[in-house]
Amino acid sequence: MGTLSAVLDTVTSRIHGCVRAGVSTGGAVVKPIATVVVRHLPRKVTEFGVGHRAIGIANGMFGEYAVSRGGELPAAMTIRLSHRRVDLDHAALAAAFPSASGRIVVFLHGLVETERSWFHQSNLAKGRTGTDFGARLVEDHSATAVYLRYNTGRHVSDNGRELVGLLSALVERWPTEVNEIVLIGHSMGGLVARSALHQAQALAMPWISKVTRLVCLGTPHTGAPLERGVAGAAALLSRFATAAPLVGLLALRSDGIKDLAQGYLHQEQWLDQDGEAPDPVATVLPAGVRQYFVAVTLSRTEGSLWGRLIGDLLVVPTSAADRTQSADFQWFGGMNHFDLLRHDTIYDAVLTWLRS
Fold first, then answer.
1. With 0-12 CB in 10 A as exposed, 13-18 as middle and 19+ as buried, what is 274?
2. N or C: which end of the chain has fewer CB within 10 A?
């Protein structure tokens, strides 16, 4: 508690100093604040403790400024196993996955999360069996689970491009021939997966035909209302000179967070448009990829006003469903955004769909 308290105290004093100085742009203060936070991150990453959560938050908040520290804050997307990075060479992959199958299920976490967010303690009272969806799919679907960690503060399109490169190397160096690839993304992870598939399709990557399924759990396909609200407030306040310090603080949001306002998948959507709205970019996925979108709400009644407005606390069902896409869709009530990572009901629904 002492370490976390020190971090909060230091960050708070830096931010207050920026306000007093009347800073109107965030870039000058993001790096020093990020440096302070990273320096005070817990050194020991525990199974379910604060370590991995702090790492995820630092990445999501500061993006490119969350510089690497011992591989825990990766500059690049990495495969992780038992808290450690797995190198993308044949020997390392063979050692990490001695029972590798030809069916790979790749898990992509969401904003301010890490791969450890998929793991949980078994608690039948809360509908949690086992420790993670991946381990269960090994038994139930003859698959090998691959968990990724990436910097969620970077643009979705940048992470999508990295995923294209990682999957290319993974397929080439996997211990056995890869027959099928399934992508499962929670929240932002679904956007990253869709961006990667679009880019891989455009590049005609040889492994693209092996991707058969994409599962998006609580993904804000059409944007997250909370981030849109912040972006709207920043735009409104920017009209008033006296609000410059506050606008500067709002600008501290990372690129990844800003992408969530409209669910941006492509570089063309966030490049400087001279203040104009970006032109629509059609997302093209391989014809053989089936999509499955899952939404949950706190409300137990589908279509209720409360459910439509609050959703799962972070994403509303209309965004998670995105009826303009060709996808199978399922809704569940009485759950929040993070239940999508660990609840038995969600696992059973995904398994049933994968078997269909």
1. exposed
2. N
Query: Token pair for residue 60?
Result: 């999501």
CA atoms of 277 and 294, how far apart (whole Å): 29
User: In DSSP terms, which residues pair with 107 in a beta bridge?
Assistant: 147, 184
Instruction: Extract long-range pairs of 129-134: CB within 8 Å, 24+ residues apart.
Output: 129/344, 129/347, 132/342, 133/107, 133/184, 133/341, 133/342, 133/347, 133/350, 134/105, 134/107
What is the spatial distance between Cα 98 and Cα 84, in angstroms, rounded to a whole number?
A: 16
CB 58 within 8 A of CB 37: yes
Burial 62-82 (b: 16+ CB within 10 A, else e): bbbbbeeeeebbbeebbbbbe
The encoded tokens of residue 7 equal: 């971090």
Q: Where in the chain is the domain with CATH 3.40.50.1820?
A: 76-223+286-355
Calculate the alpha carbon distances from 194 to 38, 48, 120, 215, 248 in Å.
30, 29, 26, 10, 31
Q: Give pTM, 2 decimals.
A: 0.81
Q: Are 152 and 56 in contact (CB under 8 A)?
A: yes
User: What average pLDDT does range 131-146 have in this prediction?
Assistant: 96
- 137: tokens are 């799919």
Whole-number pLDDT of residue 53: 62
Return the structure tokens found at 314.
């972070």
Residue type, 41: L
Residue 133 CA, chain-centre distance (Å), reads 16
Q: How far is CA 143 from CA 105, 140, 182, 232, in A?
A: 7, 8, 9, 44
What is the rounded distance in angstroms from the CA atom of residue 185 to the CA atom of residue 78? 15
- Say what the pLDDT of residue 55 is: 67
Specify the CATH superfamily of domain 76-223+286-355: Alpha/Beta hydrolase fold, catalytic domain (3.40.50.1820)
The owner of tokens 């035909």 is: 209
